[in-house]
Amino acid sequence: MARILRRTRIPAEGNGITEVYVTHSSRVPFLVRLLVNAAALWVATRVVPGVTYVGGWLPFFGLALVFGVISATIRPLTKLVTLPFIILTLGIFSLVVNGLMLMLTSAVSTSIGIGFHVSGFWAAFFGALVVSIISTILTFAVRSNQ
Questions:
Q1: Is 11 among the domain residues?
Q2: Parallel/antiparallel/unpaired status of strands 51-54 and 115-118
Q3: Is residue 65 in some structural domain?
Q4: pTM for the whole thing?
Q5: How far is Cα 73 from Cα 112, in angstroms, rounded to an integer?
Q6: 15 in any annotated domain
Q7: Which residue segment(s) compose the domain that 113 sits in?
Q8: How large is the greatest C-alpha to C-alpha distance in the chain, in angstroms?
Q9: Cβ-count burial of 32 within 10 angstroms (0-12 exposed, 13-18 middle, 19+ buried)?
């Protein structure tokens, strides 16, 4: 994964150094990303019929971790394989891929005993749409506060 870096120029005095560049990573830290995923999944369970969660807060963070691992590992490969469809549909097919990742999250979390369930493709599709929108908004808000 490419790192997006921002360089800040700090004028240095003395020591023969004319300027110093400090590199800042604009990546969101792991714990913040986990909280953003948890919040986005929680909104999806409240807004989208067919996306349900039964359980406490600690397993919900486990669900967010499962979702994050699937999003970080399997989703890029899936998007690469489906790239021609994504191009042909002007990006709309990426919503289908995101929905399939939410269905996979449901299957994995059910198999490890976390009470997250997606009832079908359309629930996954709209759930992934809600998760994407909420995650984008929260990530933007977190980055603008840093």
A1: no
A2: antiparallel
A3: yes
A4: 0.76
A5: 18
A6: no
A7: 30-145
A8: 66
A9: middle
